[in-house]
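INTERNAL TRANSFER SHEET
From: sequence group
To: structure group
Subject: Methyltransferase domain-containing protein

Please process the attached sequence and return the structure record in the designated field. Keep the field labels unchanged so the import script can parse them.
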Amino acid sequence: MDKFHGWEYFFDKHAPEYMDNIFTENTEKEVDFLEEEFRLEKGDSILDVGCGTGRHSLELARRGYKVTGIDISEKMLARGREIADKENLEIEFIKANAVDFKLKKRYDSAVCLCEGAFGLLNIGEDPMERDIKILKNISNCLKPGGKFILTALNGLKKIREYNDEDVEAGRFDPVNVVEYFPAKEIIDEAPDDMILQEKGFLATELKLMHDAAGLAVENFWGGTAGDWNREVVKMDEMEIMVVSIKE
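Return from structure group:
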């Protein structure tokens, strides 16, 4: 596998045990939050970008919503399809890269959650351009007035975790708030030269990026998986949640 596709490799390898992660235990609570924030009505259409195994897509479908989930990992999607088939749920799972996907359908709401796509860089990608493309693709799929919820890694936390020694060693880029680490740190059989890159975000840049995509930001909140709330982002919180609306 070409190291350019490092995250696809990672998620393919991670698919079998993904649903065993502790944070997945709060999926129902997270979907309760989405229902409240989106003010969903039965039959509403929802796009889940970077859906992975479909833990949110599946729960939304169980509650009567029409869901499309896209993800770069075929093995993640296969797990989602398997569960959907067992429960007789109608979900459209599509293998696609969030950076360049196009859909004809327009949705009432959309989500991109828990680092399923946003902030996960591959070799040679510009940190800002890549994720603005994702936001534009999502915006293009929303109906006017449609709501979007994003959770992105909190750049403040990343900045506080690293020091000048990490910068000099090439483990952290303070300008773009990007962390670099060998895939072998989390996947034993990964190629020696596979480097994964994760970008953290500040609220100010997220606001500019949403503006560029035609998404008007309504709120910034703390967004750590399993503990979503409507409170100000804490310095060491894992994620930032952005709630926006298509202009």
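Handover comment: The mean pLDDT is 92. The CA atoms of residues 126 and 194 lie 18 Å apart.
Transfer complete.
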